[in-house]
Amino acid sequence: MSIVTLTSLLFSIGLFGVLTRRDLIAVLASVEIMLGAANIQLIAFAAARGEYGSGQSLALIVLVIAAAEAAVGLALLVALARRSGRTQVEELMEVEG
Amino acid sequence: MSVSEVSFWILATMCLGGALVVVVTRGMMRMTLGLGAFLLGVAGFFLYYGSPFLAVAQVFVYVGGVLVLILLAIMVLKRDDTGRPQLTSRVDIATALVPIIVFVFMNQALSPVGEELGVVLGSSDSVEDMRMALLGTMLPQFELVGVLLLVALVAAVAIVVRKERS
Fold first, then answer.
1. Could you say which of A22, A40, B14, B47 would form a disulfide bridge with B41 (CB–CB 3.0 to 4.6 Å)?
2. Residue B66 pLDDT more than 90?
3. Touching check for A62 and chain B: CB below 8 Å?
4. In this prediction, does ipTM exceed 0.85?
């Protein structure tokens, strides 16, 4: 199995999780899987091209953005759970236009 | 089978197993453990491709930070059931088509590039390269992402501690 196949597979598994999981925490975890797969790909290509500098910097930026996303996502989740006690995606219809 | 092949397969198994556990399992704690295995596998791949600094950052930020944050959220919510995807329902089977198509296209599109490049294993001065890039050509992005992280953390605190009005 090549690294390209592996990361494509991981990305697809994450996408499947985002589309089918009902709970917000599980959706967030699936998004983390997609970002992780993309990051592995980035580092593998950077290593293959010998461009460690820009590849690693980009991967570091993705890492920071993913951490920020997780922090805000979990904060929203806790706020939602306090407000309505529900975290299932299908039940969150309050902001529906 | 060489050492590098063996380590590749161990890391691949860790990542795939962890990812599958996250997507399929029902228990919240099991899902978190699966995510932990996946994130450690990603850190291992960073090490495998010659980026030790990123591997350490991955362990600190994710395994030490995000995973603990998720555990804390689970403790606050006091729930252990995530509602497993009903893989037998027609909608979910149809939904599975989307990731499969994405996988096929992604694999087809990137495989030639991957083969053309070939994979070589790491250099020891990768940290020096990253320093030059981050403080050189990528300085604006580096600063911006720092600001973004600060704003996100302040926003997270503001969302959680805001008192209920009315």
1. B14
2. no
3. no
4. yes
